[in-house]
Amino acid sequence: MQESIIETKSFQFAIRIVKLYQYLCEEKREYILSKQLVRCGTSIGANVSEAQRGQSKPDFYAKIAISLKEANETRYWIRLLHATEYLSDREYISLDADINEIISILVAICNSKER
Q: What would the pLDDT profile of 56-102 be if each residue is shown by its tens digit?
């Protein structure tokens, strides 16, 4: 079975988030914000994966909606880590582009429900 674009992108993003979490803990000695980030940043893909194998269309859309909420929370933590100088401008721009792309895809999926 072939993975969907959102499944692939959210999984690759989760890998980035786990590596960022390791970096923040080991290099920056930051444990509180990064733990929040790793929870919601990896939850996006977990919920997308669950949605792909949902029991029904309503179940699918419910899991996608949860993924969107988690993605929005992830964007918040990325912004906060940047504003508090745990992330450089370069790191922030790259992560922000990725999370915004994921959010756009999830919004499009959610909007397709209403068609």
A: 999 999 999 999 999 999 999 999 999 999 999 999 999 999 999 99
**CA nearest neighbour of 97 among 12, 31, 28, 35:** 12
pTM beyond cutoff 0.85? yes
Whole-angstrom distance between the N-terminal and C-terminal Cα of the chain?
Answer: 26
- CA distances to 1, 6, 16, 27, 81 from 19, rounded to whole Å, are 28, 20, 5, 12, 15
The residues spanned by each domain of the chain are 5-112
Candidates 3.40.50.970, 1.20.1440.60, 2.60.120.10, 3.30.457.10; CATH matching 5-112: 1.20.1440.60
User: Who contacts 99 (Cβ-Cβ below 8 Å, separation ≥6)?
Assistant: 13, 71, 74, 75, 78
Give CA–CA dist 70/42, Å, rounded.
9
